[in-house]
Design goal:
- Helices cover 22% and strands 41% of the residues.
- It has one domain.
- The radius of gyration is 19 Å and the shape is globular.
- Strand 2 and strand 3 (55-61) form a beta hairpin.
- The chain has a six-stranded antiparallel beta barrel with strand order 1-2-3-6-5-4.
- 13% of the residues are buried.
- By secondary structure, the protein is an alpha+beta fold.
Length: 116
């Protein structure tokens, strides 16, 4: 009886805690960015972006799911945890800027290329 109770508690904790921990890892920190320019070169969409301090690039493969050549404007960028995302690099998602505290619509997923 004691083994059954302990096993039940272990399964219950696993079912409840694992999804909570996993969802916490998937939520990256939001950062305001401004897309300054865009270009498409050899099937790669390249966005030149600036945050409050630095300039960098976001790249994605044209035609891939979540690859959008964004117009120059202000957006919100979220860095994804390591090994999450479409690309073998530091992945980010870009969202439409919202007037509320919530993120707007997701517009695309990109590979973050270091600061210039």
């Amino acid at each position: 009886m004691k083994k059954t109770t302990l096993l039940f508690l272990a399964v219950l904790l696993t079912v409840v805690l694992v999804p909570l921990l996993a969802s916490g890892q998937e939520q990256g920190e939001s950062q305001k960015i401004a897309v300054k320019s865009r270009e498409v070169s050899n099937g790669v969409v390249i966005l030149t972006v600036r945050d409050s301090k630095t300039s960098f690039e976001l790249q994605c493969n044209q035609g891939a799911s979540g690859c959008t050549a964004l117009d120059p404007a202000d957006y919100v960028m979220v860095r994804l945890p390591k090994n999450h995302g479409l690309y073998d690099c530091a992945n980010v998602e870009v969202y439409r800027q919202s007037t509320t505290a919530e993120r707007g619509d997701m517009l695309g997923q990109y590979c973050l290329i270091g600061a210039k």
